[in-house]
């Protein structure tokens, strides 16, 4: 497997910020739209770095960093239409951003104040899914529902290179293929499943797995937001037109640790990281914008200032996020009343009320 | 209406659910043209179409996982796991996703999914076709677990399970599929007794025997036999495993002072253990004997030539009753 993604890699913007053409894929964006993507990338990275800092300060129990994968997430997220539905893992902060989930809402899960965080129906984005690969089947089922509703919408599901070894992901491929479900499988191949390199998951490039299931697979430069946008838009459009699923392999790199609990120095060499730094998703767009005169220093400074303001908002919001009510663990266990849960809620309340002052 | 088998009663219940709610759809292996390996879904695909009665790929996790997505989209999936022993590939989706979505989303993505599972032994089947895995599911918050014992309950309870806003694991006692009873199809499921309540199916005064699913008929036969010897057994069909209707059992035990719990599932950490603990807590001063459990052994389900020795039968039920009465 080639470290650079090989000749199949769809790319529209080189790491040097040079716009190149591809025979099959293209995007036609105004300079304002391009600046918008740049802003997305910078703000998502700032959210990510602030959350990482908050974990280090003890405000979050854990954080799964998305640094390096912003273009894959923003490019695909911005390809979605409002009626589409996204099914994330736990690292899709850039997708959440594109779907309008407030960054603060992402922190609740990692701070330990909720197991959810937002209304999936408000944003057409499912809650983060931690069990690897489970959400791919949900995306297929949801897409089957769209088919039955006669809708023109599609679903997209996110997963990593490690997840491609999971049974559920392969079952999702099968179900989507035989039912021709309108779903886009968006695999961020960031080269690492915690400590295990891609070689522990596959012998062939991941996008070629689609061949065996009978639908198209495409490998895109995951650090090229324009190429990701183009490829995802085309896959979504194919799904809307009844052509069924597509597997997109976004070839990228996990610049950070798996999570804040991980120590990548134990299993990978810094030379790789340095090589991938040269392919940074933000820098190439910045160069492209500046070179064409579509953004100047004032613009970049303004975005950086906006990022700082967002970080402060996130920090303050996180620190002032209240702990949930103790009895809230008994809420919503079932949709209809369940006598055991209600009995245990009452026991719990009585136990705590038995202490002087009421609360234990 | 003429006498109907449990299999046909469930079929009629599924048909009513499909008629009454356009969001109900069925999915499973071989449930379409074949009508299911037990013919429970016979004729439904012909009448409701392939979009609503869906033959699925042979992948149980895929069946349940896609049902999660369909439920998020507003459908009410009724999925069939072909046999008890084949549910485990779907165990992850059931326990980590189906059971938890309502809580994680603070009620925004409820999971009105019914998972039908033919279960239990007594039909001479090969390995993995005779198991009673209900305790695994009852142990998981967020799931409801029920099991009918007779055709009328099966007809009503399957519709109630589908109407329930929570996920329901619907265990069908496969060896009772061919038991017959009269069914009134005009029965209104909303005014029928809740599926989450037990029922006293034979009043008695000497001792209480609680059971469910396939064991109810066995225990009723044991009660008839015991009556000839002057022992008046009160038989409770639990019907629901989660929530567990302890109150109906406790009310009975307060009168009889003795309880035997019977199930096909292994005794160790089974429903009998839970019921014994709760009845001991709630009826300590009424009990004349420890709660006795009669059930499967701590072995893999044996080859079918041995299953008659593994499964509780009339004699083992009566042995349990005698042990309780000996105190």
Short recap of the structure:
The complex is a heterodimer of chains A (360) and B (327). Chain A is of the alpha/beta class. Chain A is built from 13 helices and seven strands.
Structure, explained:
The complex is a heterodimer of chains A (360) and B (327). Helix content of chain A is 44%, strand content 9%. In chain A, helix 6 (134-149) packs parallel to helix 7 (167-179). Chain A has 13 helices and 7 strands. With 360 residues, chain A is an alpha/beta fold. Chain A has 2 domains: 31-324, Rossmann fold, CATH 3.40.50; 325-360. Chain A is globular. Chain B has 327 residues and is α/β, with parallel strands linked by helices. Chain B folds into 2 domains: 3-182, Rossmann fold; 199-325, Rossmann fold, CATH 3.40.50.920. Helix content of chain B is 35%, strand content 20%. Chain B has helices spanning 6-20, 44-48, 60-72, 91-98, 101-104, 134-138, 151-163, 215-228, 246-256, 271-282, 307-310, 314-325; strands at residues 3-5, 24-28, 53-55, 76-80, 114-119, 144-146, 168-173, 180-182, 199-202, 207-211, 233-237, 240-242, 259-266, 292-296. In chain B, the strands form 3 sheets. Chain B has a 7-stranded mixed beta sheet, with helices on both faces. In chain B, helix 8 (215-228) crosses helix 12 and helix 9 (246-256) packs across helix 10 (271-282). The longest helix of chain B has 15 residues, at 6-20. The radius of gyration of chain B is 19 Å and the shape is globular. The A-B interface holds A 87, 114-116, 119-121, 126-127, 129, 131, 134, 136-149, 155, 167-168, 171-172, 174-175, 178, 331-336, 338-341 and B 25, 51, 56-57, 59, 61-62, 64-75, 77, 89, 92-93, 96-97, 100, 102-110, 112, 141-142, 144, 164-166, 196, 242-244.
